[in-house]
Every structure is written in C-alpha cells, then in structure tokens.
C-alpha cells in the first residue's frame, strides 16, 4: 500500500483532449510539471510529469511519463528511482499500454501491460493474461481521465469519484472524495483549488482512510498543486515547483 501511495503522490496528471481549452489539444510539446517532495522540513525527493502527443506504430497516442526519485540524505539512506509510462488513446482516453519500472533500494521490478479492449483483458509480462472490467485504466491514465471528466464545477461536496484500475498486477478501485474549495499558498503563489481526499486502506502506512489530501487547481489547467500524506512515520508533502506549456495567468487568477 505504501508503494501505491507514493505512486499517487507523484502521479496527478496533465491535460487531455476532452478539455476544450487544454494545451495538449493544440500543442505537440504537451505539458511538463515538476515537483519537490518533503518529509517534514527535509527535502527528500523530486518528481516530474510529462505528456506529449506521439505517433507510435502508426497510432496517434498520448505518451505520459512520470518519474520520481530520492535526493540528498534520503538518496543515501534508501535510493528510489521509479518510472511510470502510459500510452493513451486520444479519443477514448483509455490506455493501450502501461510500463512500471520500480527501483527502490535493492528491490527492482519492470512490468509492461498491454490492454486488449475487445476481450477486456490485460497481458502482463510478469503475470500473464487477466480478465478486467470494461474501461479499466492503469494508475497513471486514470488521473488524466479524472481531470478530463470529473474535476469541474459540477462536483458536489462529499461526492466520491470512482475509477477502476489495474495496478501492480491487481485490480484496484481508485476512489477520492471532493471536500470543497481551498486556497493554497504554494511555491508559485496563492492558488484556488479543488480539495480531494482519496479513500485509502488503513494499516501498513495510514492510520485513517482520510490521511491523504490532494489539491487540484480550480481553473482550466486543473493541475495538482499539492499532495500531502499523514503516515505512521510522519508527514510527507509534494509541492508543484515549476511548469511549462499551460496558462500561468489562469492558474493564479482563478477566483
């Protein structure tokens, strides 16, 4: 569960074709977001999230790449370098292929998953073929889908968004509850945000099911501004540091 939590901390995504004013609809260079991760007051890691439109095997796809790694003291104590990739159909926003490359201390795991939409199956290089529900996402494409379809002014306080995913060779129902609006004093200025609390499993990492909070900018960009975990081992926070290829003015003037 902790590895899934770290993935969610790093993931929150980029614009999609379904957003009328989304830059990825009109720009081949896509979107680039960069984050810093703190454990308490200590800077412990950094992450980047990129998406661009590419033609792969003759198909027009979105290629999303998430990388996250430890730095400084944390890198000396327990080195982490994780990479997630998702190749997404530009019309349906469903993934065609997903890659998970995990390097955490001495633990290494590389997995490729191919989605067969006609048969509702996934084929994993580690565990073979599995039946999945129609419309299943990988963990990265799920957040792009959520930004395109669920993060908007139609949300009602207390509403729970649910997306079926296939993560770490298992089905995982991603759920997060909308808590309202909040202005975040961030590294890039004050940003009005949607506030979400993902529903997480308690036990190994979390004391309560609402120990994770995510703030998404409440403008046309709809980007993750901050993610915070309250874990058994302490507080972990991820903040947006800089970005490119979307509307900065919109981000800071979103009253």
Describe the structure in your own words.
There is one protein chain. By secondary structure, the protein is mainly beta. 14% of the residues lie in helices and 52% in strands. It has a 14-stranded antiparallel sheet with strand order 8-7-6-5-4-3-2-1-14-13-12-11-10-9. The longest helix is centred in the middle third of the chain and has 11 residues, at 139-149. Mean pLDDT is 80; it is low at 1-27, 202-206 and 247-255.
Detail the topology: elements first, then pairings:
Elements: H1 2-11, H2 23-26, E1 31-39, E2 42-56, E3 59-70, H3 72-77, E4 81-89, E5 95-104, E6 107-116, E7 121-124, E8 128-131, H4 139-149, E9 160-167, E10 170-186, E11 189-198, E12 212-217, E13 224-231, E14 234-244, H5 248-252
Antiparallel strand pairs: 1-2, 1-14, 2-3, 3-4, 4-5, 5-6, 6-7, 7-8, 9-10, 10-11, 11-12, 12-13, 13-14
């Amino acid at each position: 569960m902790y590895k899934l939590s770290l993935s969610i901390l790093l993931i929150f995504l980029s614009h999609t074709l379904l957003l009328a004013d989304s830059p990825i609809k009109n720009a081949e260079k896509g979107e680039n977001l960069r984050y810093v991760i703190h454990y308490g007051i200590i800077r412990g890691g950094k992450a980047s999230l990129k998406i661009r439109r590419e033609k792969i095997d003759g198909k027009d796809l979105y290629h999303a790449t998430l990388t996250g790694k430890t730095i400084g003291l944390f890198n000396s104590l327990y080195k982490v370098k994780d990479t997630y990739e998702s190749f997404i159909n530009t019309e349906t926003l469903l993934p065609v292929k997903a890659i998970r490359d995990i390097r955490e201390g001495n633990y290494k795991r590389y997995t490729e998953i191919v989605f067969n939409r006609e048969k509702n199956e996934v084929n994993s290089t580690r565990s073979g073929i599995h039946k999945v529900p129609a419309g299943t996402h990988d963990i990265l494409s799920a957040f792009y889908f959520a930004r395109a379809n669920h993060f908007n002014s139609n949300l009602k306080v207390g509403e729970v968004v649910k997306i079926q995913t296939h993560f770490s060779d298992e089905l995982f129902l991603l759920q997060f509850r909308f808590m309202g609006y909040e202005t975040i004093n961030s590294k890039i200025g004050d940003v009005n945000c949607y506030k979400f609390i993902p529903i997480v499993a308690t036990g190994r990492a979390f004391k309560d099911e609402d120990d994770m909070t995510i703030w998404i900018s409440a403008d046309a960009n709809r980007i993750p501004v901050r993610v915070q975990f309250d874990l058994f081992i302490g507080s972990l926070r991820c903040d947006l540091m800089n970005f490119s290829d979307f509307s900065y003015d919109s981000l800071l003037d979103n009253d």
